[in-house]
Design brief:
This protein is about 10% helix and about 40% strand.
Length: about 140
Amino acid sequence: MRTLTSANSTFILNIPGVFPIPVPVQGYSTDDAFAVEPFDTAEAYMGVDGRMSAGYTPNVKKLTVTLQADSPSLEIFDAWKGAQDSAREVFLCDATIVIPAISKTYNLVKGVLNNTSTMPDAKKTLQAVKYVITFESIEPALIAA
């Protein structure tokens, strides 16, 4: 029987210019782990005569990763950002997300860290930290059940 849990999902980042081996992402936020922003797959226009024209358009895919303030994976993102700041270059990554509940693996290709927080917000408790990675593609694939 399938469930809707995301608790048993895994997320592995491969950032060759920063880490010699792929690294697991751990310590997700209570209500958010990772989410892909919706994106357009086509442009459509309506002419003044009421006739629509449309065409396919490729787009980047943005993945937001939300980590608890005490996540051990904050160090991964800090090191990645630090490497980019030092080199004044981007360091590309690939990622794999496995979600057993729906028997899916997602391959995320050619990503760049393009939005970060430098520290968690300090409220009653320290708040979760968000990172945005923009990928060239995110492709689903079936995994063995």
